[in-house]
Amino acid sequence: MAEKIVILTGAGISAESGLGTFRDEGGLWAQHRIEDVATPEGFAKDPALVHRFYNMRRAEAAKAQPNAAHLALARLQREFSGEVVIVTQNVDALHEAAGAEVIHMHGALASALCAACGHRWGAPLVMAPGEPCPACGAGAGRPDIVWFGEMPYFMEQIEDHLLGCDLFAAIGTSGQVYPAAGFVQQARYAGARTIEMNLRDSDSSHAFEDHLIGPASKVVPSWVETLL
Ligand code: OAD
């Protein structure tokens, strides 16, 4: 029986809550260019466009409710005899809404970040270019989202968790974006058993020992049952 579980989640866990994924057919990256809306260079070039993109994401996320997969992971964290660490690449707040504690390695829609002084505050639903920082007053507010070319948050903490885990699960992620896509290898190196849950094989499926194929709202609750 595992004593420490690390769970990585991606956009697929929120798909059944109505939030679009990035790389599935018709996903966000089919409709928007990554360079335009998810890089520091894109923000420097056209901050209004980038704010519009994240304002839209924030509005959609505000309407979404956690689904059975988020609720099952929160229950696992509450009731499991050992430790359960949830790391998400998602910027929505559905894990928290389900009652879980979560590490947001790619930032959060609910947070704003001052590019001048690094202060963070609760993002308003609608942000605009020149958003003033409540701490230093600079008009340098940006979404607190990790863009391509930026370092994901809490990496040291996450790596420590991976080194100490004996079960690693990845749920609803395409395994295309590093460093998250490499977590499975780090967990294996630490001797953990690994399991992937996805609608289909992902780019890193070969690295996992076990696979549960199906929608997160079905496979995650039944997996959680086997652990409790
Ligand atoms: P992707 O859009 O790349 O992948 C979503 C995955 O979820 C795919 O493998 C789908 O097969 C799977 N999926 C879709 N619906 C599902 C369901 N109902 N149940 C289970 N699985 C399902 O999303 P991520 O892997 O999260 O980063 O993307 C990683 C990062 O790339 C994101 O955090 C974002 C993006 O660019 C930044 O913006 C920095």
Keywords:
single chain, 228 residues, alpha/beta, SIR2/SIRT2 'Small Domain', 2 domains, six-stranded parallel sheet, three-stranded antiparallel sheet, 10 helices, binds 2'-O-acetyl adenosine-5-diphosphoribose
**How large, in whole angstroms, is the Cα Rg?**
18 Å
| DSSP strand tally | 9
The low-confidence parts are none
Given helix and strand content, the structural type is alpha/beta
Helix content: 25-40%
CATH domain class of the largest domain: Alpha Beta
Q: Order of strands side by side in the largest beta sheet? A: 3-2-1-7-8-9
CATH topology of the largest domain: Rossmann fold
Major pleated sheet: 6 strands, parallel
Could you tell me the strand content as a percent range?
A: 15-25%
Structure, explained:
There is one protein chain. This protein has helices at 12-15, 28-31, 34-37, 40-45, 47-63, 68-79, 94-97, 155-163, 183-189, 216-227; strands at 4-9, 83-88, 103-104, 107-114, 120-122, 141-145, 167-171, 193-198, 210-213. With 228 residues, the protein is an alpha/beta fold. The longest helix is centred in the N-terminal third of the chain and has 17 residues, at 47-63. Helix content is 35%, strand content 20%. The chain folds into two domains: 1-18 and 66-106 and 152-228, TPP-binding domain (Rossmann fold), CATH 3.40.50; 20-63 and 108-145, 2-Layer Sandwich (SIR2/SIRT2 'Small Domain'). 2'-O-acetyl adenosine-5-diphosphoribose is lined by residues 10-12, 15-16, 21-24, 27, 38, 89, 106, 146, 172-174, 176-177, 198-200, 202, 215-216. 2'-O-acetyl adenosine-5-diphosphoribose binds next to α1.
